[in-house]
Design brief:
By secondary structure, this protein is mostly helical. Helix content is 71%, strand content 2%. The two termini are 32 Å apart.
Length: 286
């Protein structure tokens, strides 16, 4: 009985992953044919909820001590479906289909870049090349999908149907930017180094209050758009500042105390040492 219970526990985290796949598949069925704005909104919500299942499968595996290579591979396949193919089809049907072949290419680029990012991660993980767990290398595919679905949800809640042709080009640019960021070497913080402290609690409270105020002043659906945009912008800003870090010659000429401070600053670590081997899209390794 105890052995059977142990086997059943191995199934539990995989059920979370399969639930994420189901929601991605459900989103694609809603986007098939000529979907209405309401159906596209439901598809976006399905992908949004898939993010929750994806976020908790790794945590459940660690809590039950049922981590496995099978779970890692299954999660990567789930991410391609739920956060690669489903958001690509959604944004194509929602905004990019009238652009013709160009819209098809931009939509496909999102799915392709997401798959490339996952493949890069899997190769590096299998080689055992583990980098800092404080950073993602490239924008994680669930967050890229979250940025897209938050746009769809916010637009539907505010305007309903997307009718203005001029709005489609900016959306295509956003999709292209998200695709590029997924395969780039821009580092995004995992916030795994954040510990419970008065400063962290104050920051969290400020973000919650700011989001609440924003939702009251505008609409609640805009809050997620702003949070996603702020996270993406933060990674880009850190990448720009990191390229301006002092060279080795300049650092060597500094006083020992200043030099030690620079070397201890994780944001100034060389990019070459930060390989995404200690991270995971669906949180198996985090």
């Amino acid at each position: 009985m105890q052995i059977n219970l142990r086997k059943a526990m191995f199934v539990l985290p995989n059920l979370f992953t399969v639930s994420s796949i189901f929601l991605g598949f459900y989103a694609m069925t809603l986007c098939a044919g000529e979907p209405t704005p309401a159906q596209l909104n439901r598809a976006a919500l399905a992908i949004f909820f898939a993010m929750f299942f994806d976020a908790f499968d790794g945590r459940v595996a660690r809590m039950t001590k049922t981590q496995s290579e099978f779970g890692v591979e299954l999660d990567s396949l789930a991410d391609v479906v739920s956060f690669g193919a489903a958001p690509s089809l959604l944004v194509y049907k929602w905004a990019l289909a009238p652009l013709g072949f160009a819209g098809l290419v931009v939509s496909f680029a999102f799915a392709a870049c997401g798959a490339l990012r996952l493949a890069r991660f899997n190769v590096l993980a299998h080689r055992g090349e583990k980098g800092s767990s404080r950073f993602f290398v490239g924008l994680p595919i669930p967050l890229a999908a979250g940025a897209l679905v938050s746009l769809v949800i916010a637009h539907y809640r505010t305007y309903g149907e997307l009718t203005a042709p001029a709005d489609r080009i900016p959306i295509a640019i956003v999709v292209g930017l998200l695709s590029f960021l997924m395969v780039s070497t821009v580092r995004y913080r995992t916030f795994k180094d954040v510990h419970l402290s008065p400063k962290s609690l104050l920051t969290f409270a400020f973000l919650c209050i700011a989001g609440l105020a924003m939702g009251i002043v505008t609409r609640a659906s805009f809050v997620m758009v702003v949070y996603m945009a702020a996270y993406i912008a933060m990674g880009l800003a850190e990448a720009v500042f990191a390229r301006r870090r002092p060279t080795e010659e300049v650092v060597a000429a500094l006083p020992p105390g200043v030099r030690a401070e620079i070397e201890a600053d994780e944001a100034l670590e060389p990019d070459d040492d930060d390989v995404p081997g200690a991270e995971k899209e669906g949180d198996e390794y985090i």
